Amino acid sequence: MRKVLSVLCHIVAGFLFNIVSVLAFISALPATAKFLMLAGFSLPALIALVVGLAFTGFRDWKRDAGIVLLSTSAWSAFMVLTMACLLMSEEFTRLVPQSASAPMDDYLTGGLFIIVLAIGGWLLFKGGEPAGRGAAAGMK
After folding, report:
1. Alpha carbons 84 and 96: distance in angstroms, whole number
2. From CA 13, how far away is CA 79, in angstroms rounded?
3. E strands of 4-133, at which residues?
4. What is the pLDDT of residues 14-53, one digit of tens each?
5. Domain coordinates of the chain in residue numbers?
6. CA 118 distance to own-chain centroid
7. Most buried one in 22, 69, 99, 130, CB count within 10 A?
């Protein structure tokens, strides 16, 4: 049961990190307000991630946290690519007014946030060996 609750918390954390990565593309705010907004929305994501890790007793926490961050960054990058493809379509641009996507054009901050998620996730994933498979297990 604890493993199921852990997975559910990891899903919630990934969803919340995805929301933060979408908010990183907003350009209508000053830099300080945007940073505070991203930090404020990241806090529930971090809490959900830590709760999910606590359900498994922080066993393999680096690997699990890395998987959550990597999958979130991959999903966010996929959504950005999807929107870019839609915006290149003539039919989509006719149906959706140009002003609909105007507040979401801070590609630098959004892209950097996705890259930071991916690098952090990769470093955690590669740094976390599963329990029982370390150097001591190979010496038995």
Report:
1. 14
2. 17
3. none
4. 999 999 999 999 888 888 998 999 999 999 999 999 999 9
5. 2-129
6. 8
7. 69
Q: Which two tokens stand for residue 114?
A: 């996705």
Quote the Cα angle for 117-119-120, to 5°.
65
As separate numbers, helices (DSSP H) first and strands (DSSP E) second, the chain gives 6, 0
Q: What does the alpha-carbon distance between residue 50 and residue 63 come to, in Å, rounded to a whole number?
A: 13
CB 21 within 8 A of CB 110: yes
Residue with tokens 């976390």: 128
Q: What Cα–Cα distance (Å) separates residue 51 from each residue in 2, 58, 120? A: 11, 9, 19
The two tokens of residue 23 are: 């908010």
Length of the chain, in residues: 140
Write out pLDDT tens, residues 80-124: 999 888 888 888 888 887 766 668 888 899 999 999 999 999 999
